[in-house]
Amino acid sequence: MTEIKLSEAEIKMIELKREEERIEKEKQEVQLQLQYQKEVEYYKGNFMKEIECIKKSSLNMKKVYDKLVEDGIGDYIILHESIIERTFNLPSYLVNLELKDEDKIEPIEITSYRIDFSNNGSIWSVTDDLKFELPSSISNRYQKYSYKTALVKIKDAIENYKQKQIAKNKKEIVKQNLKKDFLNLDPNCKIEEKEEWTSGYGRNRSYYISCLDITFSNTNFVKIKYYEDGTWSIIKQIDNRLPKDKLEIVNYLAK
Fold it and tell me: What is the rounded (10 degree) CA torsion for 41, 45, 46, 50?
């Protein structure tokens, strides 16, 4: 096999090429290290800020809870406590960077609070000036309220909730009395309880109405709607050639 001899010039070119490759590799390594340091510093800073924000929000949440209890809302709220764990990692899209051991942070456990309302919804975070968003059951606006404004809205919502519960209880009594009356009229009648969606007109919005579907033993049918004030009316019947008085109609259908 013939040995190929390189001239001094060719050998020099090869050495220069190798030196250029070495310098380029070192340059890339330095750039990668600079990028790594920059990314670690940025995301570690964000991570620690997040930890501090959670801690501050939790302390502020406790302050708001204590103030709400002092202002008479304690029976309608619960302070929910949980332990959350946060782990520091670089974003997954930085595929060329791997966190070094010296830059790793042990998982951090934080006590977190939130305020739950008994009639639905929660307060999830509170700012340093005690501003916070209210759940949709209290306000349909996605904005932070001052404590004073929020307290007024919370009290209004509680009062509305009480009134609805009173109306609901009254309506339940009306329903049970109606069912009792119809069963006395026809012990074998079939009664179905329903909540039906109806469309309103003008300023009236769509809403649910409480109904009873009564099928008498003679297969006659009537649908009635009822209200918490004890009144009721017929909204559907099989035979329209009937008396106008609702009680006469019911008695006629039950025969």
Answer: 150
Collect contacts of 103-106 with beta carbons under 8 A, ≥24 apart: 103/40, 103/44, 105/44, 105/47
Cβ-count burial of 8 within 10 angstroms (0-12 exposed, 13-18 middle, 19+ buried)?
A: exposed
- For residue 101, give the 3-state DSSP assignment: helix
pLDDT tens profile 60-98: 999 999 999 999 999 999 999 999 999 888 887 776 677
Q: How many CB atoms lie within 10 A of CB 252?
A: 15
Distance CA 22, CA 19 (A): 5
- Coil/strand/helix, residue 123: strand
Looking at every residue in the chain, the average pLDDT score rounds to 85
Q: What tokens appear for 199 in the block?
A: 């469309």
Which element (helix H / strand E) includes 139?
A: none
Nearest residue to 239 (alpha-carbon basis) of 249, 251, 224, 226: 249
**What are the Cα distances from residue 85, in Å, to 106, 108, 109, 126?**
10, 6, 4, 19
Residue-wise pLDDT for 99-149, tens only, equals 788 888 888 999 999 999 987 899 999 999 999 999 988 998 889 999 999
Q: Are strands 122-123 and 108-117 parallel, antiparallel or unpaired?
A: antiparallel
Residue with tokens 């909540």: 195
Nearest one of 40, 120, 113 to 82, comparing CA atoms: 113
Residues ≥6 apart with Cβ < 8 Å to 156 = none
How many CB atoms neighbour CB 160 within 10 A? 13
State pLDDT tens for residues 192-208.
998 888 766 555 566 78
